[in-house]
Write a structure and sequence with these properties.
The complex is a heterodimer of chains A (283) and B (476).
Chain A (H helix, E strand, L loop, with lengths): L1 E8 L4 E7 L1 H6 L5 E5 L7 E4 L2 E3 L4 E7 L3 H8 L5 E2 L1 E6 L10 E7 L3 H13 L3 E8 L8 H6 L3 E6 L6 E2 L3 H10 L4 E5 L2 H13 L4 E4 L15 E4 L2 E4 H4 L2 E3 L5 H8 L3 H13 L2 H4 L5
Parallel strand pairs in A: 9-10, 9-13, 10-11, 11-12, 13-14
Antiparallel strand pairs in A: 1-2, 1-7, 2-6, 3-4, 3-8, 5-6, 14-17, 15-16
Chain B lengths: L6 H4 L10 H4 L12 H9 L8 H4 L7 H9 L3 H9 L5 H7 L6 H4 L11 H15 L14 E5 L3 H12 L3 E5 L8 H4 L8 H13 L3 E3 L10 H5 L6 E4 L22 H10 L17 E5 L3 H12 L4 E5 L11 H10 L2 E3 L2 E8 L5 E14 L5 E5 L5 E4 L2 E4 L7 H4 L27 E3 L2 H4 L4 H21 L7
Parallel strand pairs in B: 1-2, 1-4, 2-3, 4-13, 5-6, 5-12, 6-7
Antiparallel strand pairs in B: 8-9, 9-10, 9-11
Helix pairs in contact in B: 3-5, 5-6, 5-9, 6-9, 7-9, 10-19, 14-15, 15-16
The chains are: A alpha/beta (283), B alpha/beta (476).
The complex binds flavin-adenine dinucleotide (FAD) (2 copies), iron/sulfur cluster (SF4) (2 copies) and FE2/S2 (inorganic) cluster.
Chain lengths: 283, 476
């Protein structure tokens, strides 16, 4: 059992947990993820290790409530226990002094991009970060990101904060005017796809972190398979970071829809057995 | 030989009563009900208690078969169970899943003229009898040796080794990547063939022996073997991590939605209990028309799970003929009865997209058996212009497994062979790295429950020797 030591609502859909997991904190590196199961009947849910504190023995998770498992997770409070936590999984980010780096975080993807930006900054890179969200109310960690970036650009789709644009617009501006050595992009698959389309034109190497559907997270099931440069790779053990220009994003997006009918059934059940509790809007 | 023609000889095997095929094909309850005590005694009395006991030579761990069957004849069922357990710690499991027709029962002398003794059924009976009537007997534990051993993987091999080591007085920690212990017994073999309560019972037993169980611990990620041996104070490690890496066909369309490896499908169904969705929250593709590709136990289990999840039609597509199918005979028979549609000498060549990224069909080609190849098996060859399509919405490649490199990748000083399997001495489990032993599927490739258990036991003996003499003898 793993204790939730701290809970913070970052926005109306995004929640932060600090979880006591001493052994994992000891081993975690930027780019790793973990898998949790809230209770005996629960799904295995992969989440990025958005931060860790080796001294206090904690890992930080930031998650968006999108379906049944994440809504349930959101109902837990400080002092509650999570049945299973396994990690650190996946490869960690390759951190070095590349020179000029742009880190792009979209939506809940701001959380996983943070430890990478922080490590890159500590490694001596000049880091420009672009964080974007649909609307101001979903944006979080502005200050944290500013602290680890030489420059921070904020975009919102609806213009409620920062520049009214999608993240690729300021990115393209930068690429037009400067020589960039590396771009890191983490966010919804569609955002990563368009970031890669943009950087490809300028021949700038781009690393993305994929979020395919997973079960075991150890290379055993093949459910997280993606196509990278025409080859099958498993996100959980070969990734989650890949060269974005080689990723077949359309396949990834299609596979993310693989259980959409079942997810609807699950959400209906959530509504029936106490939708209010889960904070779900009827639509 | 010892067989004299008596009346008993012609007597037929007592079969276990089973759920009717069409009923069980829609539920996850166990298929056979097991013997009653009278049925067990009746079957046992067919056994001749042969002096040579050819049957024993067919059992990888040499269970005292005539011995325990004799005890059944005397209705000393608990003693019979203890007799089996001297050699085989998991009789309730092995009685159900051993391929007896290729092991013990294949050597039974009665098999020459009639049907061999139902050794598996009897083994299952005594184990279930003990569970229902006996108290869980916790043996007297020896004085602690002060030595610590790490066992990696809680499948049948790891469980067996852990028990034997604990019985020698060592401190044993069993590390398991998943949230439930048992390996393939939990995540692979379905409930209707091996009720999970049986595995849970065995796990309770090992906990009572003082074995520490560390779940959710992926060795190679959370701790490396070197950390266990150096920082964490373990004197030896036994790697028994199974052969858990799925294989795909490598044909067009294999990443469409609706296609998942048997590993994924069975893990969803068994470990995550997706057959109880939405009560259990992990979803699974039920499908109207399902094709399973392969001919082993894994394929048979996948097909029968698909049927139980409500598929109207389940095809089992296998490129050789029925005779070559490696699956356990009893399960092939069950699958036939339940209405699985077998397509032999058929090879899939392409998955068909419905235009929206979902599977809607499979194209296959008919095969014929050609000349025997180097292995002596007749190689299947495609028949020209015999392609045909089947409408399906779920496909499950069940083509066998490979070695998972997750752990071995972190051990450059450990020799592995071509397929990534760990190179280990068959008798001792010793590897190229001192203090590190390996056994089970991660050494042999996909094999059987009982062979993994045999490796676990042999290795426990070797670890005992090693902890006494600190002598390492490994030749490549
Ligand atoms: C390596 C990795 C890191 C991730 N990091 C984060 C993170 O830091 N924060 C965060 O909010 N989300 C993260 N995700 C996504 C998160 O796992 C999913 O949002 C979550 O599993 C959805 O579960 P649900 O039941 O709430 O939603 P559902 O209603 O079940 O699904 C909503 C959508 O989430 C995706 N999804 C469903 N099940 C899974 C699964 N088992 N594994 C992965 N995706 C799934 C599907 O695309 C689905 O359409 C990460 C995913 C991966 C693979
Ligand atoms: C669907 C299916 C049906 C089968 N049917 C039969 C049958 O009817 N009869 C029969 O005799 N055999 C059958 N087999 C084969 C048999 O189950 C295996 O040969 C046997 O389980 C191998 O045992 P093992 O102990 O080597 O490994 P496994 O049972 O594979 O267990 C390995 C364990 O190690 C864990 N692990 C892996 N990597 C790590 C790591 N890095 N750190 C920590 N833990 C790790 C895994 O999670 C797993 O729990 C079947 C196999 C399958 C898949
Ligand atoms: S362990 Fe398996 S092979 Fe050995 S006697 Fe029992 S059923 Fe037969
Ligand atoms: S099981 Fe068969 S071979 Fe073995 S002792 Fe009985 S009759 Fe003889
Ligand atoms: S999650 Fe199963 S192989 Fe990656």
């Amino acid at each position: 059992m793993f204790n939730i030591l701290k809970k913070e609502e970052l926005s109306d859909q995004i929640t932060l947990f600090e979880i006591g997991a001493r052994d994992i904190a000891k081993k975690a590196k930027p780019g790793n993820f973990f898998i949790l199961r809230t209770h005996e009947q629960g799904e295995r849910v992969p989440l990025t290790i958005a931060d860790f504190d080796r001294d206090r023995g904690t890992i930080t998770a930031v998650f968006q409530k999108v379906g049944r498992a994440t809504h349930h997770l959101g109902t837990l409070n400080e002092g509650d226990f999570i049945t299973d936590v396994v990690g650190p999984l996946g490869n960690h980010s390759h951190i070095a002094n590349f020179g000029r780096v742009v880190c792009v975080g979209g939506g809940v993807g701001i959380a996983p991009v943070y430890p990478v930006a922080k490590a890159l900054s500590e490694a001596g890179n000049n880091v420009t970060s672009i964080i974007g969200a649909r609307s101001k109310s979903i944006l979080f960690w502005e200050e944290k990101m500013r602290n680890v970036s030489d420059e921070l650009i904020i975009t919102t789709d609806d213009g409620s904060y920062g520049t009214k644009a999608v993240v690729t617009a300021p990115l393209e501006d930068i690429l037009l005017n400067e020589k960039i050595d590396l771009v890191i992009a983490i966010g919804p698959a569609v955002m990563m796809k368009f970031v890669c389309k943009t950087t490809e034109k300028y021949g700038v190497k781009t690393i993305v972190s994929l979020n395919s559907i997973m079960i075991d997270g150890t290379g055993m099931c093949g459910g997280c398979r993606v196509e990278i440069g025409g080859e099958i790779k498993y996100t959980c053990v070969d990734g989650p970071e890949f060269n974005g220009h080689e990723v077949d994003f359309d396949l990834l997006m299609n596979r993310l829809q693989g259980y959409i009918d079942e997810e609807r059934i699950a959400m209906k059940q959530v509504r029936v057995c106490g939708g209010k509790n889960y904070g779900i809007k009827d639509n | 030989m010892e067989l004299k023609t008596t009346e008993k000889e012609t007597k037929k095997r007592v079969n276990m009563r089973e759920q009717p095929p069409l009923v069980r094909a829609r539920n996850f309850l166990e298929v056979p009900y097991g013997y009653t005590p009278d049925e067990a005694v009746e079957e046992a009395t067919r056994c001749r208690t042969c002096k040579t006991a050819a049957c024993r030579t067919g059992c990888p761990v040499e269970v005292d078969i005539p011995g325990f069957i004799d005890l059944i004849k005397e209705r000393r069922f608990l003693d019979a169970c203890y007799r089996v357990k001297e050699k085989n710690a998991l009789p309730a499991v092995c009685g159900r899943v051993c391929p007896q027709e290729r092991q013990c029962e294949s050597r039974c002398l009665l098999g020459k003229k009639g049907t061999p003794i139902a050794i598996g059924n009897l083994e299952r009976f005594v184990a279930d009898y003990e569970a229902d009537n006996g108290n869980m007997k916790i043996p007297e534990m020896p004085k602690p040796t002060g030595r610590k051993v790490a066992v990696i993987g809680s499948g049948p091999g790891g469980l067996t080794c852990a028990v034997d080591l604990a019985m020698s007085g060592h401190g044993v920690t069993l590390f398991e990547a998943f949230h439930d212990p048992g390996g393939v017994l939990i995540y692979g073999i379905p409930e209707f063939r091996l009720p999970k309560a049986i595995v849970k019972r065995e796990v309770e037993y090992i906990k009572k022996l003082g074995i520490e169980l560390k779940l959710n611990t992926v060795i190679g990620k959370l701790h490396t073997i070197d950390e266990l041996l150096n920082g964490k104070g373990f004197d030896a490690c036994f790697i028994c991590t199974g052969a858990g890496l799925p294989m795909f066909l490598g044909i067009p369309g294999e990443n469409l939605n609706g296609i998942c490896s048997a590993n994924e499908y069975l893990t969803r169904a068994n470990l995550m209990k997706a057959y109880l969705f939405p009560e259990y929250e992990t979803p699974i593709k039920t499908g109207k028309s399902v094709a399973v590709l392969g001919g082993g136990n894994v394929a048979m289990d996948s097909a029968r799970v698909a049927l139980r999840l409500g598929a109207e039609k389940v095809y089992l597509i296998y490129r050789r003929s029925e005779a070559e199918m490696p699956a356990r005979k009893a399960e092939v028979h069950h699958a036939h009865e339940e209405g699985i549609d077998f397509l032999f000498l058929t090879n899939p060549i392409r998955f068909i997209d419905d235009g929206k990224g979902n599977l809607c069909g499979i194209e296959c080609i008919k095969m014929e058996l050609g000349e025997p190849d180097a292995s002596g098996r007749r190689r299947p060859l495609p028949i020209k212009d015999s392609e045909f399509n089947i409408d399906i919405d779920v496909a499950i490649p069940a083509l066998g497994a490979r070695a998972n490199p997750l752990l071995t990748k972190t051990m450059p000083d450990l020799s592995v062979n071509k397929g990534g399997y760990i190179a280990a001495d068959e008798g001792t489990g010793m590897t190229s790295k001192e203090g590190v032993f390996a056994g089970g599927d991660i050494v042999t490739g996909s094999a059987t429950v009982i062979s993994a258990m045999g490796a676990g036991r042999r290795t426990a003996n070797a670890i005992n020797e090693y902890l006494t003499w600190k002598y390492w003898d490994y030749q490549n």
